[in-house]
Amino acid sequence: MSTEALTPTSYINHHLTFLTQPVGGDGSFWSINVDSMAVATLLGIVAFGFLWWVVRGATSGVPSRRQAFVELAMEFVDDQAKGIFHGDRHKFVAPLALTVFVWVLLMNAMDFLPVDIMAMFYEHVLGLEHFRPVPTADINTTFALSLSVWILMIFFSIKVKGLGGWIHELTCTPFGAHPLLWIFNILFNLVEYISKPLSHSLRLYGNMYAGEIIFLLLGMWAATGVVGTALGAILGAGWAIFHILIVVLQAFIFMMLTIVYISMAHESH
């Protein structure tokens, strides 16, 4: 950190500040969190490069541990998609769900990196004053992911029902097809359409942001002396073990909601 006196407020603010690049002008309207974009892109390349490498070398004989792990992950996600979709419809959703699960899981797992050690690396090796390595603790990342799912949901609604059928569903359900009820049907459906991406993104963001805050609060114990350092290390290890459940569970929930929302797009009301 800089030479300013270390206080709880300055410590937390330092670790919660994004590496932001303004886009045009002073960036008051549009800016990019470079750290979230860079880490998310890198993890995407690493994760799916690994999956591609394993699948390319897959054999029909006794699988290696890498192949067995990937096959278990693919079968698990495929079973979830089959449980909601029927027939051949899951053939697109299953790979999408696998992509979402693995990518979100890796982005969540960045929360396990020791914040102070990583901050020293960013500052002294990369020369960056601020850098947040957990993309899913950035509302922009989670909302972009949920918005992509939301667009796919609308796309499949129109593809399955046709544009006329989709508009008819918006205007005539759930209260009826009478013209006087159209405005109430549209408002009701708008609430549903708006709430889905909001709840989808905020659930993941809230859990990961809270986990990040707790790690920072525990890290502050290290500045209180030997006893504080030891106690902070013990509590931090305990929270990290519990946080494994949160990291995996939030990736699973995000994946399942992706499947459910796209499945709902195939249903008629």
Explained architecture:
The chain has 269 residues and is mainly α. It has a domain at 31-145 and 199-265. It has helices at residues 8-15, 34-56, 65-84, 90-109, 115-124, 139-172, 182-219, 226-265; strands spanning 20-22, 31-33. Strands 1-2 form a two-stranded antiparallel ribbon. A hairpin with an 8-residue loop joins strand 1 (20-22) and strand 2 (31-33). Helix 2 packs across helix 4 (90-109) and helix 3 crosses helix 4. The radius of gyration is 22 Å and the shape is globular. The model has no long low-confidence stretch (mean pLDDT 85).
Secondary structure topology:
Elements lengths: L7 H8 L4 E3 L8 E3 H23 L8 H20 L5 H20 L5 H10 L14 H34 L9 H38 L6 H40 L4
Antiparallel strand pairs: 1-2
Helix pairs in contact: 2-4, 3-4, 4-8, 6-7, 6-8, 7-8
Structure at a glance:
This protein has 269 residues and is mainly alpha-helical.
Number of helices: 8
- Widest sheet, order of strands: 1-2
**Unreliable residue runs:** none
Let me know the average pLDDT.
85
**First-residue to last-residue Cα separation:** 56 Å
Radius of gyration: 22 Å
* Helix-strand category: mainly alpha
The dominant shape is globular
Summarize the main sheet: 2 strands, antiparallel
| Helix and strand sequence | HEEHHHHHHH
Strand content: under 5%
Number of strands: 2
- Fraction in helix: over 70%
